[in-house]
Amino acid sequence: MSATEGTLRVPLHGLVRLPFAFAAALLIAACSLPFVFVGLGEWAWATMRPVWGHVVLFLAGVRVHVEGAEHLSTPALLCSNHTGTMDSIVGPAYFPPYTKWVMKKEFARVPILGWACRAGAFFVDRGDSAQARAAMKDGAAGLDPEWSIVIYPEGTRQRDGHLAPFKKGVFHLALLTRLPIVPMACHGGTAVLARGSMVVRPGSIELTVGAPIATDGWTREEADRRMEEIRDAVAACAEASRVRFESRA
Question: Beta partners for 5?
Fold first, then answer.
């Protein structure tokens, strides 16, 4: 296991950290839009998205500890838990540059941030499984070999930190792409930014990245067993992140 750390804290009061971070996020996203409109969106996404994530974490005063970073060295389906807003910032900062996200379709309409994500996301309707499968099929068909895909298989944020039942989108993507699945999980994001709060509390977030799970021989008939295997692997990463987080407290 390898460990990497983001160091980044600034002496700003918690009440002003969030507006500073949000303003920086908008500014960087806005700078990428001209590239999106002239057909260089994927280049802008791969180049500016990591900058966006690290700058926002810097302004929020967040230190990220990553265990298992070596498992992010090759293209994969990155399968993560999702507890809150900060998870959505850790990923852009620490996942490989050539990575696309599976996002809810509503986000595509968010001014500036949503527009910038159009070059790096598959937008799915969580209430329409047929549309979601079609969107993922189209996205997978056009995916370059060097790109990874991030998916949050719970389908939405789980504020209590417990893993919800997984939706089968990750399984469908595995059959479409045959990419290995890399399980991962964050812990500590809600301590930095609680649900409904406008106050950012500087602190640390733990990210555990598990060993890849090969999908070459998977078949559609074994969906339930494979989904349980994926969920167990993500749960193990979540527990490892929780233990490390509490040991640092």
Answer: 65
Q: Where are the domains of the chain?
A: 3-248
pTM value is 0.90
**Cα gap 240→184, rounded to integer Å:** 10
One-letter amino acid for residue 75 of the chain: P
- Using the 8-state DSSP alphabet, how is residue 222 labeled? G
CA-based max dimension of the chain: 54
Residue located via tokens 């002003």? 16
- Residue pLDDT, tens place only, 83-117: 888 988 999 999 999 999 999 899 999 999 999 99
Among 24-38, 79-93, 100-114, 146-160, the minimum mean pLDDT is found in: 146-160
CATH entry 1.10.10 includes domain 3-248: no
Cα separation, 8 vs 234, whole angstroms: 27
Percent of the residues in the chain that have a pLDDT greater than 70, as a whole number: 92
User: Rounded CA gap, 173 and 154, in Å?
Assistant: 15
The count of residues in the chain is 249
Could you tell me if 77 and 182 are in contact, meaning their C-beta atoms sit under 8 angstroms apart?
Answer: yes
Q: Per DSSP, which regions of 108-229 are E strands?
A: 121-124, 148-151, 181-187, 203-209
